[in-house]
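step 4 of 6: structure.
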Amino acid sequence: MTHMHVAGAIHADVASPAPVWLTRPDDVNELTTKLWSSNTKREEDGVISIAGVRVTDLAEQVGTPVYVLDEDDFRTRARTWREAFAGWTVYYASKAFISTVVARWLAEEGLSVDVASLGELTVALRGGVDPARIAHHGNNKSDAELRVSLTSGVGRIVVDSSDEITRLERLCAELGVTAKVMVRVTTGVEAHTHEYIATAHEDQKFGFSIGGGQALVALFRCQNSPHLDLVGVHSHIGSQIFDTNGFEVAARRTLKLFAQFREATGQELPELDLGGGFGIAYTKEDTPSSAADLAAGLREIVRHECAGYGLNVPRLSIEPGRALIGPAGTALYRVGTVKPVELGSGFSRRYLSVDGGMSDNIRPALYAAEYSAALANRVSDAEPVISRVVGVHCEGGDILVRNEFLPGDTGVGDLLAVPASGAYSRAMASNYNHTPRPPVVAVNHGRITTILRRETLDDLLALDAGLEKSES
Ligand SMILES: Cc1ncc(COP(=O)(O)O)c(C=O)c1O
Ligand SMILES: N[C@@H](CCCC[NH3+])C(=O)O
């Protein structure tokens, strides 16, 4: 992830070890603008508010932990991306987070939606997304899933394997329909991100390899199928990427494939999807590109490559997930214990245990992802101290924020806010240790709306078949 290369390095000038990239803030109460949703600020009395809702009121009304979505921030970001990429189709990657309310916002803001499971597809449809504006992904889509996709009129099915093409042809024949398909290709790009979220190097499960020749074969096969309508190629190189070079190389390689396809068939492929993966700021160190800069860069590359091959510029699309919902979300936790841990050589680390953990945000444990945090219910004059925010689970790796300067008097009962938490946190949440998953609330103009309620122990016990039997 972003700072993995320096995670072990330490400052010697502070009482606790801090990674070299983490600088001591002049004002520990200040909210670094790029990290927080656009309607987040500190009120005069020091309490953080999001879209006019004070986090102290929020915690009182809905409890903690809670994920807070700044509706206006999300909608504005969705519009900004749609406008920056005018003329392209912008699919929101729903895996980052989806609920029927978010699906409705997307439909209202004129975005399309990418789904990667029957669950995401169902939520998008139930949320009112036009099926024609849905792209269906997955490296092992089931018959049941493809059937729903075909019968509901999903706009694009992105095929990922020969077995899937066979399955899809059989289902299309059975249902008497034709599927519009894109072929997911592997461009061989080594994206600069964590290994687990890079998806275009050769040794991973997604797509047909361009370098190995399988991509061209898959294109021919779809082109010649009476059941499939081949519309183009899909490339996705990975996630949380800052270095735009990877997108450029992917665009070059896919357009070379377009040229090869035309040479072999005399026909041009009409569409190219360049996927998602645009990085966001989780810490002050991160410097994401703006939608406008990304759009200008990608437009120019595509134009240049198409001109070089004498191709018409295809209809283009992208699939940002994190870049739209990540910065709009804030996680709110309450501190339950504070523990100074002696590390030897005069160092100590302050562990702040909060009421959530790896069950609501697995990203630090899974990708060594870095986050930031701020004391949210008040300001403090105390010296900033390097702190580690940890959860309630039975794992040493149950870390939410590995290193952050927080006021030295942060204590039991205080609220901590973790910005940039809208993507892949609640969406990847689990019930580890039989923990009910936190709610997601939308805030706007001082109003709180629950869009996903808090799970309860009763919800979890309702799944317990043994209990059902003994009580019936
Ligand atoms: C096919 C596809 N499209 C889009 C995305 C969205 O990625 P991100 O949220 O990084 O923009 C992903 C996830 O990495 C993906 O696998
Ligand atoms: N889940 C990943 C991103 C990969 C998404 C799907 N291709 C993350 O949390 O960063």
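step 5 of 6: annotate
 - The chain has 13 helices and 21 strands.
 - The radius of gyration is 24 Å.
step 6 of 6: archive
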